[in-house]
Amino acid sequence: MNRTARLYALVEELRAAAPRPLTVAALATRFDVSTRTVQRDLQTLMETGVPVRSLPGRGGGWSIDPAMTLPPIHLTADEASALTAALAAADASTPYSGAARTAAQKIMASMTGPASATARGLAARLVTLPTHGDCAIRTAVEQAIAGNMVLRLSYTDAAGHESDRVVEPAGLLTARGRWYLIAWCRTRRAGRGFRLDRIAAAAPTGEHAQPHDLNGLLAGSVAADAVRPEALAPLTPSP
Predict the structure, then answer these.
(1) In this model, does residue 222 exceed pLDDT 70?
(2) How buried is 156 (Cβ within 10 angstroms: 0-12 exposed, 13-18 middle, 19+ buried)?
(3) What Cα–Cα distance (Å) separates residue 14 from each residue in 5, 36, 63, 78, 187?
(4) Which residues contact 66 (CB under 8 A, 6 or more apart)?
(5) Cβ contacts of residue 127 below 8 Å, gap of 6+?
(6) Whether the Cβ atoms of residue 179 and residue 218 lie closer than 8 Å to each other
(7) Buried b (16+ CB within 10 A) or exposed e, 178-214
(8) What is the per-residue pLDDT across 100-130, written as a single tens digit (0 to 9) for each?
(9) Among 101-115, 131-145, 217-231, the least confident range
(10) Distance separating alpha carbons of residues 32 and 202, to the nearest angstrom
(11) N or C: lower Cβ tally within 10 Å for the chain?
């Protein structure tokens, strides 16, 4: 078993045992490697963001929070190639591009043989023109949406006017290659869209936002007919 396969197998072994911890010695025996190798693998998992943790003391060991990871998903070669291509096309200005990049790497690492070559070849044929995007701003927006937190923005509108806003995020809108933060603007006391590449600064206030319906904020705007991506629509059985 190569190291990539062993890392995935380690995660699944810990998931199967959760919440009971497993000792390094037990994992070394299970995968027929040294305890030093297991320790190194577990450290690698921690560094890549996998929620594994060490529990010291008698009865301790290593465990994982199964709620924070996904079970194995069996993809066809075409599905894996499509996901790899879509994720590889996310540039630095795209929300969640960091997670998209690591997800693409994990998908490609899990594939072998012709399927792996096809996915890598397809990803190599995709190029994007870089656009302006500040990593710190994008991260602040991502975290505010995920945690439903109030944001303080410095924003420059289409006319070049600068203003400071306090907003309650509702979601993201993509249109014509641009990304917009849709939010309730406390400053204007109305729903507003803020183009991400026009946000000069974004800082969380630490305050929880009131929930806002995304479609409600879009009502009456040029984006009133916006729809969720087809990829997120529920699968329905063929007739």
Answers:
(1) yes
(2) middle
(3) 14, 18, 6, 29, 48
(4) 15, 18
(5) none
(6) no
(7) ebbbbbbbeeeeebbbbbbbbbeebeeeeeebeebeb
(8) 877 777 777 777 777 777 777 777 777 776 6
(9) 101-115
(10) 49
(11) C
Confidence of residue 237 (pLDDT cuts 50, 70, 90): very low
CA distance 214 to 216: 5
Residue 199 has pLDDT above 90, yes or no: yes
CA distance 148 to 136: 18
User: Where are the alpha helices (H) located in the chain, listed in sequence order?
Assistant: 3-17, 24-31, 35-47, 77-88, 97-110, 113-124, 135-147, 214-218
CA-to-CA distance for 64 and 55, rounded, in angstroms? 10
CA atoms within 13 A on the CB side of 107: 28
Q: What is the per-residue pLDDT for 70? A: 65
d(CA 39, CA 44): 9
Indicate whether this model's pTM tops 0.70.
Answer: no
β-strand partners of 39: none
Q: What would the DSSP string read from start to end of 48-97?
A: TT--EEEE-STT-EEEE-GGGSPPP----HHHHHHHHHHHHT--TTSTTH
